[in-house]
Amino acid sequence: MPWLNKQPTWLIISISFLGLLLGWHLLVAWGGYARFILPGPVDVWQQFLIVLRDGRLLKHSLYTISEVIPGLIIGSLIALPLGYLLAKSQLAERLLSPYLIASQAIPVIAIAPLLTIWVRSTYWARVLVAVIVVFFPILVNIIAGLRSVPAELYELMASLQASRRQIFYKLELPASLPILLAGLKVGATLSVIGALVGEFVQPKSQGLGFLLVTARYQFKTALVFVVLVTLAVIALTMYGVVALVEKRMLRWQAKN
C-alpha cells in the first residue's frame, strides 16, 4: 500500500496496534478460549487498571527498572575497556576470546542460581545477571567498531604525529561510535531480560518477575499479560533513550 508509506510513523504504529488488538479479540471470541487460558484485550485492560490503582504495577516496575539501568551501565563500563583491549591486542584476544565465547554457551538461567548463592544481596545478584546478559553483545560491537576504522586514517594520524590519546578521541571513538551505539541499543533491551531472569531465580517479593511468577501460579493470565506488556514498554523505552542519544551524538552524519 503506497499511501501507507507516506503516512507518519505514529499513524502507522497506531494502525498496526489496532489491527493487533482486533485480531486478538477475534481469536478469543471465535476460538472459544476460557479467560484463564487466553484473556481478551478488555480483560487485560481491566486487570491493568486494577494493579495500577492499587499501586502494585508501579511498585514492581520501579524495582525492576532499578535493576535494569545499573545492569546496562555496569555491563557497558566493563565491556568498553575490555573490548578496546581485545581489538588492539592479539595476545589478549588469543588468551581471553576462548573463555568469552565459551561463556556464551552456558545459559544465563543456569548461572543465575549460582550468583544468588555467591552474592549475598538479592538485589545485586539480579543486577549481576543483567550485567552478564548485556556484556557480550556490547563487547562484540565495540570490537567490530574499532576494527572497522580504515587503516588509511591511522596512517594519516601517524603523519600528523598524533598521540595515542588523540588517536582514540579524534579517530577511533567517532569512527566506531555508530556500531557501539547499535550494541548499546541491543544491550538496553537485553538488560530487561537479564533482570527478569534474576527475579525468576530469586523471587523476593519485589519486581515484575515476582509479579509474573505469582500471577502464573494463581492462574491470573490477564495479569501475566499485563506484566509482559509492561516489560515490553520498559524495553522499548530503554531502546528509545539510547536511540535518542545516538541521534544526538551522530548529528554530524546527517550533515555529511
Descriptive notes:
The chain has 2 domains: 1-32; 35-255, Orthogonal Bundle (MetI-like fold), CATH 1.10.3720.10. The protein has 12 helices and no strands. The chain has helices spanning 2-5, 9-31, 41-53, 56-88, 90-103, 108-118, 122-147, 151-159, 164-201, 208-217, 221-249, 251-255. Helix 6 packs across helix 9. The longest helix is centred in the C-terminal third of the chain and has 38 residues, at 164-201. It starts with a helix and ends with a helix.
N to C succession of SSEs: HHHHHHHHHHHH
CATH topology name of the largest domain, in short, is MetI-like fold
Structural class: mainly alpha
- In terms of DSSP E residues, the strand content is under 5%
- What is the CA-CA span between the terminal residues? 32 Å
What is the share of helical residues?
Answer: over 70%
In total, how many domains does the architecture comprise?
2
* Anisotropy-based shape: globular
Tally of separate helices:
12
CATH superfamily of the largest domain: MetI-like
- Low-pLDDT runs: none
Mean pLDDT value: 85
Radius of gyration: 22 Å
Total strands: the figure is: 0
Concise overview:
The protein has about 260 residues and is mainly α.
